[in-house]
Specification:
- The chain is mainly beta and 115 residues long.
- It contains no helices and eleven strands.
- Strands 2, 4, 5, 6, 9, 10 and 11 form a seven-stranded mixed beta sheet that branches. Strands 1-3-8-7 form a four-stranded antiparallel beta sheet, with no helix packed on it.
- Strand 5 and strand 6 form a beta hairpin.
Length: 115
């Protein structure tokens, strides 16, 4: 059983940057897909980015060229580097680990982008 804790959220002006971290209580090496979702009140949940055990990455069109997902298996951590932030990036961001049999979610970290 794995617990996830997101951190690194906060308030930033448009054009700024943040790095989100997801710390797992156990090994992440057994999970096939690691990812980040986001959800803001009044909007549907959006899959932001994923990274597979083989290192392949995928991004939502809305964040391509601005966000980068990465992992450090030795530290049992997943990261989301967010650059050139826009107001529409405001949301609670959730870390998720998925295998064929199990899925784990963190409780989220708030990101607010405003002038």
């Amino acid at each position: 059983q794995v617990q996830l804790v997101e951190s690194g959220g906060g308030s930033v002006q448009p054009g700024g940057s943040l790095r989100l971290s997801c710390a797992a209580s156990g090994s992440i090496s057994s999970f096939n897909v690691l990812g980040w979702y986001r959800q803001d009140p009044g909007k549907q949940r959006e899959l932001v980015a994923t990274i597979t055990s083989g290192g392949s990455t995928s991004y939502a069109n809305s964040v391509k060229g601005r966000f980068t997902i990465s992992r450090d298996s030795a530290k049992n951590s997943v990261y989301l580097q967010m650059n050139s932030l826009k107001a529409e990036d405001t949301a609670v961001y959730y870390c998720t680990l998925r295998s064929y049999n199990m899925e784990y979610w963190g409780k989220g970290t708030q990101v607010t982008v405003s002038s």
